[in-house]
Amino acid sequence: MEIQIIKTENPKEKPESSVLGFGKYFTDHMFIMQYSREEGWHDAKIIPFGNLSLHPASTVLHYGSEIFEGMKAYRRADGEVQLFRPIENVRRMNNSAERLCLPQIPEDDAMQILDTFVSLEKDWTPAAPGTSLYLRPFMFGNDETLGVHAVHHATYVLIASPVGSYYKEGINPVKIMIEDEDVRAVRGGTGYAKCGGNYAASNRAGQRAEEKGYSQVLWLDGVERKYIEEVGAMNVMFKIGGEIVTPKLTGSILPGITRKSCIEVLRDEGYTVHERLLSVDELGEALKNGTLEEAWGCGTAAVVSPIGELCYKGVKYTINNGEIGKVTQHLYDTLTGIQWGKIEDTRGWTYPIR
Ligand code: PLP
Ligand code: COI
Predict the structure, then answer these.
(1) What is the pLDDT of residues 9-30, one digit of tens each?
(2) Which CATH superfamily groups domain 174-339?
(3) Does ligand 2 have an atom closer than 6 angstroms to the CB of 231?
(4) Does ligand 2 have an atom closer than 6 angstroms to the CB of 233?
(5) Considering only CA atoms, which residue is closest to atom 2 of ligand 1?
(6) Strand pairing report for 174-178 and 216-220
(7) How far apart (Å, rounded) are the C-alpha atoms in residues 312 and 180?
Protein backbone atom coordinates (compact mmCIF):
# COMPACT_ATOMS: atom_id res chain seq x y z
CA MET A 1 0.00 0.00 0.00
CA GLU A 2 1.08 3.57 -0.54
CA ILE A 3 1.70 5.63 2.57
CA GLN A 4 2.07 9.38 2.20
CA ILE A 5 4.43 10.92 4.74
CA ILE A 6 4.05 14.51 5.90
CA LYS A 7 6.68 15.31 8.52
CA THR A 8 6.21 17.72 11.37
CA GLU A 9 7.96 21.06 11.23
CA ASN A 10 8.02 21.30 15.01
CA PRO A 11 9.56 18.17 16.52
CA LYS A 12 8.92 17.94 20.25
CA GLU A 13 11.49 17.60 22.97
CA LYS A 14 11.66 14.02 24.22
CA PRO A 15 10.85 13.49 27.91
CA GLU A 16 13.41 12.16 30.38
CA SER A 17 12.97 8.45 31.14
CA SER A 18 12.30 9.17 34.81
CA VAL A 19 9.03 11.02 34.12
CA LEU A 20 7.52 8.67 31.53
CA GLY A 21 4.85 6.73 33.45
CA PHE A 22 2.29 5.19 31.09
CA GLY A 23 0.75 6.88 28.07
CA LYS A 24 1.35 10.50 29.03
CA TYR A 25 3.64 11.59 26.18
CA PHE A 26 3.19 11.08 22.46
CA THR A 27 5.59 11.08 19.55
CA ASP A 28 5.76 13.62 16.72
CA HIS A 29 3.59 11.77 14.21
CA MET A 30 0.59 9.51 13.82
CA PHE A 31 -0.61 7.20 11.09
CA ILE A 32 -4.17 7.55 9.85
CA MET A 33 -6.26 5.96 7.09
CA GLN A 34 -9.89 5.88 6.08
CA TYR A 35 -12.29 3.12 5.12
CA SER A 36 -15.51 3.17 3.18
CA ARG A 37 -17.54 0.27 1.82
CA GLU A 38 -17.13 1.68 -1.69
CA GLU A 39 -13.41 2.42 -1.63
CA GLY A 40 -12.07 -0.01 0.99
CA TRP A 41 -9.05 1.28 2.95
CA HIS A 42 -7.61 4.43 1.41
CA ASP A 43 -5.82 7.71 2.08
CA ALA A 44 -3.08 6.13 4.22
CA LYS A 45 -0.75 8.73 5.62
CA ILE A 46 1.62 9.63 8.41
CA ILE A 47 0.98 13.17 9.60
CA PRO A 48 2.08 15.37 12.50
CA PHE A 49 0.51 14.20 15.80
CA GLY A 50 -2.65 16.19 16.50
CA ASN A 51 -6.35 16.20 17.29
CA LEU A 52 -8.95 14.32 15.28
CA SER A 53 -12.05 16.04 14.00
CA LEU A 54 -15.32 14.06 14.15
CA HIS A 55 -18.89 14.64 13.05
CA PRO A 56 -21.06 14.83 16.20
CA ALA A 57 -23.18 11.91 14.93
CA SER A 58 -20.09 9.75 14.35
CA THR A 59 -20.91 6.10 15.20
CA VAL A 60 -18.15 5.69 17.75
CA LEU A 61 -19.44 8.56 19.89
CA HIS A 62 -22.88 6.97 20.28
CA TYR A 63 -22.60 3.23 19.86
CA GLY A 64 -19.04 2.48 20.89
CA SER A 65 -17.74 0.97 17.63
CA GLU A 66 -14.10 0.97 18.66
CA ILE A 67 -11.29 -1.56 18.89
CA PHE A 68 -7.64 -1.18 19.74
CA GLU A 69 -4.37 -2.99 20.26
CA GLY A 70 -1.40 -2.54 22.56
CA MET A 71 2.15 -3.50 21.67
CA LYS A 72 5.64 -2.20 22.24
CA ALA A 73 8.83 -1.33 20.37
CA TYR A 74 11.89 -2.16 22.47
CA ARG A 75 15.37 -0.64 22.39
CA ARG A 76 17.71 -3.60 22.29
CA ALA A 77 20.93 -3.74 24.27
CA ASP A 78 22.81 -3.20 20.98
CA GLY A 79 20.83 -0.02 20.21
CA GLU A 80 18.54 -1.51 17.54
CA VAL A 81 14.75 -1.32 17.87
CA GLN A 82 12.43 -4.35 17.63
CA LEU A 83 8.81 -5.38 18.02
CA PHE A 84 7.57 -8.48 19.85
CA ARG A 85 5.25 -10.86 17.96
CA PRO A 86 3.52 -8.00 16.07
CA ILE A 87 1.67 -10.38 13.75
CA GLU A 88 -0.24 -11.65 16.79
CA ASN A 89 -1.56 -8.14 17.45
CA VAL A 90 -2.46 -7.72 13.79
CA ARG A 91 -4.47 -10.96 13.84
CA ARG A 92 -6.15 -10.18 17.15
CA MET A 93 -7.19 -6.77 15.84
CA ASN A 94 -8.79 -8.42 12.85
CA ASN A 95 -10.65 -10.80 15.16
CA SER A 96 -11.85 -7.84 17.21
CA ALA A 97 -12.90 -6.10 13.99
CA GLU A 98 -14.90 -9.15 12.95
CA ARG A 99 -16.75 -9.15 16.29
CA LEU A 100 -17.56 -5.44 16.16
CA CYS A 101 -18.45 -5.39 12.44
CA LEU A 102 -15.54 -3.10 11.67
CA PRO A 103 -13.41 -3.63 8.55
CA GLN A 104 -10.37 -5.90 8.73
CA ILE A 105 -6.95 -4.85 7.46
CA PRO A 106 -4.92 -7.25 5.28
CA GLU A 107 -2.05 -8.59 7.42
CA ASP A 108 0.66 -7.39 5.02
CA ASP A 109 -0.74 -3.86 5.01
CA ALA A 110 -1.01 -3.78 8.81
CA MET A 111 2.61 -4.94 9.10
CA GLN A 112 3.75 -2.36 6.56
CA ILE A 113 2.00 0.39 8.52
CA LEU A 114 3.67 -0.68 11.77
CA ASP A 115 7.06 -1.00 10.13
CA THR A 116 6.91 2.36 8.31
CA PHE A 117 5.57 4.25 11.33
CA VAL A 118 7.92 2.81 13.95
CA SER A 119 10.86 3.24 11.63
CA LEU A 120 10.01 6.98 11.35
CA GLU A 121 9.52 7.37 15.14
CA LYS A 122 12.38 5.06 16.09
CA ASP A 123 14.33 7.75 17.97
CA TRP A 124 11.44 8.00 20.40
CA THR A 125 12.14 4.48 21.70
CA PRO A 126 13.66 5.10 25.13
CA ALA A 127 16.69 3.13 26.26
CA ALA A 128 16.52 3.20 30.07
CA PRO A 129 15.83 -0.17 31.75
CA GLY A 130 12.14 -1.08 31.74
CA THR A 131 11.13 1.54 29.18
CA SER A 132 9.73 1.07 25.68
CA LEU A 133 7.71 2.77 22.96
CA TYR A 134 4.09 1.74 23.45
CA LEU A 135 2.17 1.46 20.19
CA ARG A 136 -1.56 1.98 20.18
CA PRO A 137 -3.36 1.12 16.94
CA PHE A 138 -7.10 1.79 17.11
CA MET A 139 -10.07 1.81 14.79
CA PHE A 140 -13.51 3.32 15.07
CA GLY A 141 -16.71 3.53 13.07
CA ASN A 142 -17.56 7.01 11.86
CA ASP A 143 -20.70 6.95 9.82
CA GLU A 144 -22.31 10.34 10.07
CA THR A 145 -25.79 9.12 10.96
CA LEU A 146 -27.62 8.03 14.10
CA GLY A 147 -28.96 4.78 12.65
CA VAL A 148 -27.71 1.63 14.38
CA HIS A 149 -26.09 -0.75 11.91
CA ALA A 150 -22.76 -2.26 10.90
CA VAL A 151 -20.40 0.55 9.93
CA HIS A 152 -19.83 1.77 6.39
CA HIS A 153 -17.07 4.22 7.24
CA ALA A 154 -14.17 3.70 9.62
CA THR A 155 -10.87 5.30 10.56
CA TYR A 156 -7.69 3.50 11.64
CA VAL A 157 -5.09 5.42 13.62
CA LEU A 158 -1.72 4.45 15.09
CA ILE A 159 -0.13 6.55 17.82
CA ALA A 160 2.93 5.90 19.96
CA SER A 161 3.93 6.80 23.49
CA PRO A 162 7.29 6.33 25.22
CA VAL A 163 6.47 4.53 28.49
CA GLY A 164 7.97 3.32 31.74
CA SER A 165 6.20 0.84 33.99
CA TYR A 166 2.41 0.52 33.96
CA TYR A 167 2.02 0.09 37.70
CA LYS A 168 3.63 2.51 40.09
CA GLU A 169 4.88 -0.61 41.90
CA GLY A 170 7.06 -1.56 38.86
CA ILE A 171 7.97 -5.24 39.19
CA ASN A 172 6.97 -5.21 42.88
CA PRO A 173 3.88 -7.24 43.82
CA VAL A 174 0.51 -5.59 43.20
CA LYS A 175 -2.66 -5.92 45.25
CA ILE A 176 -5.71 -7.17 43.38
CA MET A 177 -9.35 -7.29 44.46
CA ILE A 178 -11.62 -10.10 43.28
CA GLU A 179 -14.79 -8.44 41.98
CA ASP A 180 -18.04 -10.11 42.99
CA GLU A 181 -20.58 -7.50 41.90
CA ASP A 182 -19.92 -6.13 38.42
CA VAL A 183 -18.98 -8.39 35.50
CA ARG A 184 -16.77 -7.49 32.58
CA ALA A 185 -17.98 -9.83 29.88
CA VAL A 186 -20.13 -12.87 29.19
CA ARG A 187 -19.76 -15.70 26.73
CA GLY A 188 -21.16 -14.61 23.39
CA GLY A 189 -20.34 -11.01 24.25
CA THR A 190 -17.21 -9.05 23.38
CA GLY A 191 -14.82 -10.30 26.08
CA TYR A 192 -12.36 -11.83 23.63
CA ALA A 193 -12.28 -8.69 21.52
CA LYS A 194 -10.13 -5.74 22.46
CA CYS A 195 -12.85 -3.13 22.27
CA GLY A 196 -13.17 0.10 24.21
CA GLY A 197 -16.57 -0.88 25.59
CA ASN A 198 -15.07 -3.70 27.66
CA TYR A 199 -12.91 -1.17 29.45
CA ALA A 200 -15.75 1.32 29.91
CA ALA A 201 -17.78 -1.43 31.59
CA SER A 202 -14.83 -2.18 33.88
CA ASN A 203 -14.32 1.30 35.21
CA ARG A 204 -16.77 1.25 38.08
CA ALA A 205 -15.29 -1.82 39.72
CA GLY A 206 -11.77 -0.56 39.00
CA GLN A 207 -12.53 2.72 40.71
CA ARG A 208 -14.00 0.99 43.78
CA ALA A 209 -10.92 -1.23 44.01
CA GLU A 210 -8.57 1.75 43.72
CA GLU A 211 -10.40 3.57 46.50
CA LYS A 212 -9.66 0.58 48.71
CA GLY A 213 -5.96 0.59 47.80
CA TYR A 214 -6.00 -2.12 45.11
CA SER A 215 -4.37 -1.74 41.70
CA GLN A 216 -7.02 -3.55 39.66
CA VAL A 217 -9.82 -6.08 39.90
CA LEU A 218 -9.77 -9.78 39.10
CA TRP A 219 -12.92 -10.62 37.18
CA LEU A 220 -15.10 -13.66 37.71
CA ASP A 221 -17.17 -15.21 34.91
CA GLY A 222 -20.39 -13.37 34.17
CA VAL A 223 -22.75 -16.33 34.46
CA GLU A 224 -21.89 -18.20 37.64
CA ARG A 225 -19.64 -15.52 39.16
CA LYS A 226 -17.46 -18.38 40.17
CA TYR A 227 -14.63 -18.89 37.72
CA ILE A 228 -11.51 -16.73 37.58
CA GLU A 229 -11.24 -14.84 34.29
CA GLU A 230 -8.61 -12.09 34.06
CA VAL A 231 -7.46 -8.81 35.55
CA GLY A 232 -8.31 -5.35 34.15
CA ALA A 233 -5.32 -5.15 31.82
CA MET A 234 -3.70 -8.56 32.09
CA ASN A 235 -4.29 -12.30 32.09
CA VAL A 236 -3.59 -14.26 35.26
CA MET A 237 -1.60 -17.36 36.13
CA PHE A 238 -1.16 -19.30 39.33
CA LYS A 239 1.35 -21.84 40.54
CA ILE A 240 -0.59 -24.39 42.54
CA GLY A 241 1.11 -27.49 43.92
CA GLY A 242 4.05 -27.15 41.52
CA GLU A 243 1.91 -26.81 38.38
CA ILE A 244 0.78 -23.77 36.47
CA VAL A 245 -2.92 -23.03 36.10
CA THR A 246 -4.41 -20.29 33.94
CA PRO A 247 -8.04 -19.69 32.97
CA LYS A 248 -8.84 -21.21 29.60
CA LEU A 249 -9.99 -19.03 26.72
CA THR A 250 -13.74 -19.42 26.94
CA GLY A 251 -14.58 -16.41 24.81
CA SER A 252 -15.06 -13.92 27.61
CA ILE A 253 -11.38 -13.16 28.27
CA LEU A 254 -8.79 -11.54 26.08
CA PRO A 255 -6.40 -14.03 24.43
CA GLY A 256 -3.26 -12.28 25.63
CA ILE A 257 -0.06 -12.47 23.64
CA THR A 258 1.99 -12.33 26.83
CA ARG A 259 -0.17 -15.18 28.20
CA LYS A 260 0.50 -17.24 25.09
CA SER A 261 4.23 -16.48 25.32
CA CYS A 262 4.40 -17.41 29.02
CA ILE A 263 2.64 -20.71 28.31
CA GLU A 264 5.05 -21.50 25.47
CA VAL A 265 8.13 -20.66 27.56
CA LEU A 266 6.87 -22.67 30.54
CA ARG A 267 5.95 -25.74 28.46
CA ASP A 268 9.31 -25.61 26.65
CA GLU A 269 10.97 -25.73 30.05
CA GLY A 270 9.00 -28.76 31.17
CA TYR A 271 6.37 -27.14 33.36
CA THR A 272 2.88 -28.57 33.32
CA VAL A 273 0.51 -25.78 32.31
CA HIS A 274 -3.23 -26.29 32.64
CA GLU A 275 -5.57 -24.04 30.69
CA ARG A 276 -8.81 -24.80 32.45
CA LEU A 277 -11.64 -23.43 34.54
CA LEU A 278 -10.42 -22.38 37.97
CA SER A 279 -13.04 -21.49 40.54
CA VAL A 280 -12.56 -18.83 43.17
CA ASP A 281 -13.36 -21.54 45.76
CA GLU A 282 -10.53 -23.75 44.50
CA LEU A 283 -8.22 -20.75 44.62
CA GLY A 284 -9.36 -19.95 48.16
CA GLU A 285 -8.74 -23.55 49.19
CA ALA A 286 -5.24 -23.45 47.69
CA LEU A 287 -4.58 -20.21 49.58
CA LYS A 288 -5.71 -21.75 52.85
CA ASN A 289 -3.89 -25.04 52.53
CA GLY A 290 -0.68 -23.41 51.33
CA THR A 291 -0.53 -24.98 47.86
CA LEU A 292 -0.93 -21.63 46.11
CA GLU A 293 2.72 -20.76 45.65
CA GLU A 294 2.64 -17.87 43.21
CA ALA A 295 0.23 -15.64 41.33
CA TRP A 296 1.02 -13.19 38.57
CA GLY A 297 -0.58 -11.18 35.83
CA CYS A 298 0.80 -10.85 32.32
CA GLY A 299 0.17 -8.32 29.60
CA THR A 300 1.99 -6.01 27.23
CA ALA A 301 1.65 -2.91 29.39
CA ALA A 302 2.09 -4.73 32.71
CA VAL A 303 4.72 -7.24 31.40
CA VAL A 304 4.79 -9.92 34.15
CA SER A 305 3.46 -8.56 37.42
CA PRO A 306 3.53 -10.54 40.66
CA ILE A 307 0.32 -10.50 42.69
CA GLY A 308 1.18 -10.15 46.38
CA GLU A 309 -2.31 -9.86 47.81
CA LEU A 310 -5.80 -10.92 46.78
CA CYS A 311 -8.92 -9.64 48.50
CA TYR A 312 -12.23 -11.53 48.19
CA LYS A 313 -15.42 -10.50 49.94
CA GLY A 314 -13.44 -8.31 52.32
CA VAL A 315 -10.95 -11.03 53.34
CA LYS A 316 -7.31 -10.41 52.47
CA TYR A 317 -4.99 -13.19 51.40
CA THR A 318 -1.24 -12.71 51.14
CA ILE A 319 0.53 -14.72 48.44
CA ASN A 320 4.14 -15.89 48.75
CA ASN A 321 4.65 -13.49 51.70
CA GLY A 322 3.93 -10.61 49.33
CA GLU A 323 7.16 -11.34 47.49
CA ILE A 324 7.90 -12.05 43.85
CA GLY A 325 8.06 -15.81 43.25
CA LYS A 326 10.69 -17.78 41.34
CA VAL A 327 8.57 -18.63 38.31
CA THR A 328 7.23 -15.08 38.08
CA GLN A 329 10.74 -13.65 38.18
CA HIS A 330 11.95 -16.21 35.65
CA LEU A 331 9.15 -15.37 33.20
CA TYR A 332 9.80 -11.67 33.63
CA ASP A 333 13.52 -12.16 32.99
CA THR A 334 12.93 -14.43 29.99
CA LEU A 335 10.33 -12.31 28.22
CA THR A 336 12.00 -8.97 28.89
CA GLY A 337 15.34 -10.57 28.01
CA ILE A 338 14.02 -11.47 24.56
CA GLN A 339 12.17 -8.18 24.16
CA TRP A 340 15.14 -6.01 25.06
CA GLY A 341 17.53 -8.20 23.07
CA LYS A 342 19.55 -9.46 26.02
CA ILE A 343 18.60 -13.10 25.45
CA GLU A 344 18.76 -14.81 22.08
CA ASP A 345 15.35 -15.13 20.41
CA THR A 346 15.20 -18.79 19.39
CA ARG A 347 11.47 -18.71 18.58
CA GLY A 348 11.36 -16.00 15.91
CA TRP A 349 9.26 -13.72 18.13
CA THR A 350 11.14 -10.50 17.48
CA TYR A 351 10.71 -8.24 14.46
CA PRO A 352 13.57 -5.81 13.78
CA ILE A 353 12.85 -2.25 12.64
CA ARG A 354 15.43 -1.08 10.11
N1 PLP B 1 -6.48 -8.83 29.33
C2 PLP B 1 -6.86 -7.54 29.14
C3 PLP B 1 -8.22 -7.15 29.54
C4 PLP B 1 -5.94 -6.63 28.58
O5 PLP B 1 -6.29 -5.36 28.39
C6 PLP B 1 -4.66 -7.09 28.22
C7 PLP B 1 -3.71 -6.16 27.62
O8 PLP B 1 -3.60 -6.05 26.45
C9 PLP B 1 -4.33 -8.43 28.43
C10 PLP B 1 -5.26 -9.26 28.98
C11 PLP B 1 -2.99 -8.96 28.02
O12 PLP B 1 -2.87 -9.08 26.63
P13 PLP B 1 -1.47 -8.94 25.91
O14 PLP B 1 -0.54 -9.86 26.60
O15 PLP B 1 -1.73 -9.34 24.51
O16 PLP B 1 -1.06 -7.53 26.04
C1 COI C 1 -1.93 -3.48 27.05
O2 COI C 1 -1.35 -4.21 27.84
O3 COI C 1 -1.46 -3.20 25.97
C4 COI C 1 -3.24 -2.92 27.32
O5 COI C 1 -3.95 -2.66 26.40
C6 COI C 1 -3.64 -2.63 28.65
C7 COI C 1 -4.28 -1.31 28.70
C8 COI C 1 -5.71 -1.25 28.67
C9 COI C 1 -3.54 -0.21 29.23
Answers:
(1) 999 999 999 999 999 999 999 9
(2) D-amino Acid Aminotransferase, subunit A, domain 2 (3.20.10.10)
(3) no
(4) yes
(5) 233
(6) parallel
(7) 8
